């Protein structure tokens, strides 16, 4: 299988011998050209070690104004003026001597009703002008506002008003018409290049719907009861199919599929994806709602409450300093071989220093709750200074902020958090050890105190029982949730729904695609300046466009990172973690695609949540990377030990399985696929005449059933009797013998 990861760090050596010495024999030094490339790579790797800690708070979305601004590209800025002109021309014909903000609410509703009526005209051009007038209302009637705050306020007010008058349903019908417009699709397919003019109608419709979803989705304490009721009604309409139509999210998914297949290249895919994201988040809920669903689901299944909220714990963590890359054998195949390093006195002293640090770290008692002695603190602080080549200490010696009291374990059986570690340890399975000494029983007791049973484990066990005993257990009651009709929510709804989507992503090469994305200078990607404040909505609608100079373009942009890029990086890492967690075959894909150096370079970004998910992905593959990799990456190993949750019976830090291959675990993937197909068949493909359907054994009941017969049955009944009954000889002896 060809490695889809882009060439760079972690790529195999050019000669293909795999010994990492640049093309010579064993122990032969690298060529001058290879040494120069290695030095260049070192400079690139170490050039950003002094990256400041990024003050980024992970959440469902960015600020309200930023999310609205995300909808528009800078090439669409001229259309703000066009929308305003279309509204003012129509408004002057309907209302005399007043502006929109001066009207009473009843007059505003009457005008909106007139706009919706004028949307039903046959003329495509006139319909577009009216749609632009509606878009201007959704954008906040900025021509009558004096500040950005006013624009955002009236945009939200107008969106609620538009929804109450049925605007969303009207625009949904128009969207169906544009999707089914075969003339526009064929015209776009014939063009050598697609321009922004090819998607004008779709962009206007999607913009209105996005603004309505985003403004109504936003919850504020000052919202009136009418607005709160409208929000819940809107959420229900988007979650379930209305008027025998598919849910709105499925329509957007079909647009994505149509665009990706090349059948509709003119679709504005950015707006489609943004609207799809907001609809899914609005209907399924964000992280807080997901956490509440977890608590509710565990209570329904009789499981112990959760020990902590993952998002809240990560928010209390501090970012670590990036590790050095000079001795990382996986970072560059041009580095000298390990035998050369061991032969040098200085290198040996450095490796021993790292080993001594690890020994001291391992000698500390994980579950020791008393305060450490002052001598230990001084000694550990001294060890932290012994870094090689000026390497910053990854642990930073700063204690982690403990989780808030509200997140403390509710069960009396659970032990306290180990000192200095942010997570309560877990263990997946424990068994009694009959006849063994008391100390081992104490160990088992400790394991059972930390035993964690996930919702997925319970769902898998229930599914196995339903497959074994379909008759005695009866038919499963499936609640009609939004997720049951639309990855975290899938996993909570049912584990096999999550696995179904995950397996599709894996088979579509999602894992190497994400690794290819991260095989770049992630720090430069995250800190890239790709937005111009003076051109962003709503600023561009209030202020006159200044002369475009270097100073004016950079004015007001004091962010140290791009929120969008950092948010997407974290989400991609979380997705990669979801796909590979507890899946040996997929973990081996990470090893085969040489993900360790790619992921390790991402640790240069000093943001706690991003580093956490990078360390998780490194942890699951350490046993396949070998002992030498672990020796050369002790700081990374220590960071994993400190920041990632401990599985008490996991041998990640010392296990060795370097001879494993991806095909060694293919049976696991095949078994999973069989279980998914059985689940889908049992829940969604149940035929009416199934062999497990109840049988009516009452003769009178069977004979009394009404059967739908064809119209000509009465005319051909006697012929049928003669042909099928009377003319057929019956051999009674043979019939008796057979029975």
TrEMBL record:
Residues 1-16 have a biased composition (Low complexity). Residues 51-357 form the Far11/STRP N-terminal domain. Residues 372-382 have a biased composition (Acidic residues). Residues 33-46 have a biased composition (Basic and acidic residues). Residues 1-52, 324-348, 363-385 are annotated as: Disordered. Residues 17-27 have a biased composition (Gly residues). GO terms for biological process: cytoskeleton organization. Pfam families: DUF3402 (PF11882), N1221 (PF07923). InterPro entries: Far11/STRP (IPR040185), Far11/STRP_C (IPR021819), Far11/STRP_N (IPR012486). PANTHER family: PROTEIN REQUIRED FOR HYPHAL ANASTOMOSIS HAM-2 (PTHR13239), STRIATIN-INTERACTING PROTEIN 2 (PTHR13239:SF6). Belongs to the STRIP family. This is Striatin interacting protein 2.
């Amino acid at each position: 299988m060809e490695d889809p990861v882009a060439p760079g760090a972690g790529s195999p050596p050019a000669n293909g011998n795999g010994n990492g010495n640049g093309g010579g024999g064993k122990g032969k030094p690298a060529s001058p050209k290879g040494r120069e490339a290695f030095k260049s790579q070192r400079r690139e790797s170490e050039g950003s070690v002094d990256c400041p800690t990024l003050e980024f708070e992970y959440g469902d979305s960015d600020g309200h104004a930023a999310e609205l601004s995300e909808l528009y590209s800078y090439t669409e800025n001229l259309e703000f003026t066009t929308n305003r002109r279309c509204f003012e021309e129509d408004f002057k014909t309907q209302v005399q001597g007043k502006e929109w903000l001066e009207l009473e609410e009843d007059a505003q509703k009457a005008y909106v009703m007139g706009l919706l009526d004028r949307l039903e005209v046959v003329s495509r051009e006139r319909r577009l002008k009216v749609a632009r007038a509606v878009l201007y209302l959704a954008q906040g009637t900025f021509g009558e506002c004096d500040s950005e705050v006013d624009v955002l306020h009236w945009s939200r007010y107008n969106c609620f008003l538009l929804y109450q008058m049925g605007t969303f349903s009207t625009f949904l019908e128009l969207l169906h018409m544009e999707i089914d417009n075969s003339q526009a699709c064929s015209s776009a397919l014939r063009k050598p290049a697609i321009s922004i003019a090819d998607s004008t109608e779709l962009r206007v419709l999607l913009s209105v719907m996005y603004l309505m979803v985003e403004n109504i989705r936003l919850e504020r304490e000052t919202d009136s009861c009418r607005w709160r009721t409208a929000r819940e009604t809107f959420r229900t309409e988007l979650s379930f199919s209305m008027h025998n139509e598919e849910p709105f999210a499925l329509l957007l998914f079909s647009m994505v599929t149509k665009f990706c297949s090349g059948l509709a290249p003119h679709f504005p895919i950015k707006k489609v994806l943004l609207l799809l994201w907001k609809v899914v988040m609005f209907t399924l809920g964000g992280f807080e709602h997901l956490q509440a669903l977890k608590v509710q689901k565990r209570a329904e299944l009789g499981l112990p409450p959760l020990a902590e909220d993952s998002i809240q714990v990560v928010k209390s963590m501090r970012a670590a300093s990036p590790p050095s890359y000079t001795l990382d054998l996986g970072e560059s195949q041009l580095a000298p071989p390990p035998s050369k390093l061991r032969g040098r006195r200085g290198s040996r002293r450095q490796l021993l220093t790292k080993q001594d640090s690890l020994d001291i770290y391992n000698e500390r008692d994980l579950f020791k709750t008393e305060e450490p002695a002052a001598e230990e603190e001084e000694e550990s602080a001294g060890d932290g200074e012994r870094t090689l080549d000026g390497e910053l200490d990854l642990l930073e010696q700063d204690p982690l902020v403990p989780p808030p009291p509200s997140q403390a374990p509710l069960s009396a059986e659970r032990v306290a958090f180990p000192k200095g570690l942010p997570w309560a340890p877990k263990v997946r399975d424990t068994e009694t050890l009959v006849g063994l000494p008391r100390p081992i029983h104490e160990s088992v007791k400790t394991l059972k105190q930390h035993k964690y049973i996930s919702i997925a484990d319970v769902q898998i066990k229930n599914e196995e029982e339903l497959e074994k005993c379909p008759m005695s257990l009866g038919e499963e009651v499936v609640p009609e949730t939004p997720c049951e009709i639309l990855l975290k929510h899938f996993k909570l709804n049912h584990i096999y729904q999550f696995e179904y989507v995950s397996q599709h992503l894996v088979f579509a090469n999602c894992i190497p695609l994400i690794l290819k994305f991260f095989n770049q200078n992630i720090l430069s990607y995250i800190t890239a300046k790709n937005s111009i404040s003076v051109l962003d909505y709503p600023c561009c609608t209030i202020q006159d466009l200044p002369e475009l100079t270097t100073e004016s373009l950079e004015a007001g942009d004091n962010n140290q990172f791009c929120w969008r890029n950092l948010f997407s990086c974290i989400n991609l890492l979380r997705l990669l973690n979801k796909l590979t967690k507890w899946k040996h075959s997929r973990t081996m894909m990470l090893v085969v695609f040489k993900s360790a150096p790619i992921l390790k370079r991402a640790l240069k970004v000093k943001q706690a949540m991003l580093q956490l998910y990078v360390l998780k992905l490194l942890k699951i593959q350490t046993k396949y990377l070998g002992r030498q990799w672990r020796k050369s990456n002790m700081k990374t190993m220590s960071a994993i030990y400190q920041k990632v949750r401990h599985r008490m019976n996991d041998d990640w830090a010392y296990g060795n399985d370097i001879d494993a291959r991806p095909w060694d675990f293919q049976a696991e993937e095949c078994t999973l696929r069989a279980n998914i197909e059985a689940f889908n068949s049992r829940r969604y493909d149940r035929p009416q005449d199934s062999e497990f359907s109840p049988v009516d054994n009452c003769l009178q009941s069977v004979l009394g059933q009404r059967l739908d017969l064809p119209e000509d049955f009465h005319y051909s009944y006697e012929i049928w009797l003669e042909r099928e009954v009377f003319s057929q000889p019956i051999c009674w002896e043979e019939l008796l013998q057979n029975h």
